[in-house]
């Protein structure tokens, strides 16, 4: 373990995994193993099952076949993953800081303080603003800040750079890089390029559209 490593050595592993909805398979016989400090990028056209795979790994959608597990996880430590989906789950009538404070209370305030996390994602001056006034990109930054206030080893990210400008793309890369340096694992479905400083930390899985 390095001096920066925070999380125990975990491995996300799946074998013969078939994911789908309504009994319709979208992915077939997937096998993967993503260890600590590694990022798996999911690529593929719309409808190829990227979101469904993330929802399955998050435990929200049951697999049609096969199995998966976060090996090495201790149930006594509590939840081990963050799922950051398409929707930002922002309450417009709460302030930016109140929104993030709510999620810190729900998920556990084990990471950065609210003010520090808002500074990190570029929203430090907007803490007292009603979240309903945020732009789409700012709302996405607020959603990403939830990853910082509650430490969890596995990040499942669905289009994390959606609605973000070039600086926002750099922010996502920086957050993932730091998470991996702490021994975390990231699985990200994205159409946008994500290039980490250490290419050895990243691998790509291409999902094909269902015939």
User: How much of the polypeptide forms β-strand, as a percent range?
Assistant: 25-35%
Number of strands: 8
Helicity range: 25-40%
Query: How widely separated are the two ends?
Result: 44 Å
Classified by CATH, the class is: Alpha Beta
Order of helices and strands: EEEHEEHHHEHEE
CATH fold naming: Rossmann fold
Please state the structural category: alpha/beta
The CATH H-level superfamily is P-loop containing nucleotide triphosphate hydrolases
Using the alpha-carbon principal axes, give the shape: globular
Put simply, the count of helices is 5
Describe this structure in words.
The chain has helices spanning 50-57, 96-107, 114-120, 136-149, 166-181, and strands spanning 11-21, 24-34, 38-43, 65-71, 81-84, 154-158, 185-189, 202-206. Strands 5-6-7-3-8 form a five-stranded parallel β-sheet, sandwiched between helices. The model has no long low-confidence stretch (mean pLDDT 93). The protein has a single domain, classed as P-loop containing nucleotide triphosphate hydrolases (Rossmann fold), CATH 3.40.50. The chain is an alpha/beta fold and 211 residues long. It is globular, with a radius of gyration of 17 Å. The chain contains five helices and eight strands.
């Amino acid at each position: 373990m390095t001096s920066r490593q925070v999380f125990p050595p975990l491995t996300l592993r799946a074998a013969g995994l078939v994911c789908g909805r309504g009994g319709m398979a979208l992915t077939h016989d997937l096998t993967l193993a993503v260890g600590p400090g590694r990022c798996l990028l999911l690529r593929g056209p719309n409808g190829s099952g990227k979101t469904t795979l993330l929802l399955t790994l998050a435990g929200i959608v049951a697999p049609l076949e096969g199995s998966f597990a976060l090996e090495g996880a201790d149930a006594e430590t509590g939840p081990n993953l963050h799922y950051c989906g398409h929707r930002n789950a922002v309450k417009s009538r709460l302030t930016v800081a109140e929104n993030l404070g709510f999620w810190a209370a729900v998920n556990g305030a084990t990471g950065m303080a609210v003010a520090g996390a808002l500074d990190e994602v570029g929203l430090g001056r907007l803490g007292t603003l009603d979240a309903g006034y945020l732009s789409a990109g700012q709302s996405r930054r607020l959603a990403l800040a939830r990853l910082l206030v509650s430490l969890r080893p596995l990040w499942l990210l669905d289009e994390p750079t959606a609605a973000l400008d070039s600086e926002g793309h750099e922010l996502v890369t920086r957050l993932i890089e730091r998470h991996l340096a702490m021994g975390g694992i990231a699985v990200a479905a994205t159409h946008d390029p994500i290039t980490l400083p250490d290419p050895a930390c990243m691998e790509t899985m291409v999902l094909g559209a269902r015939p």
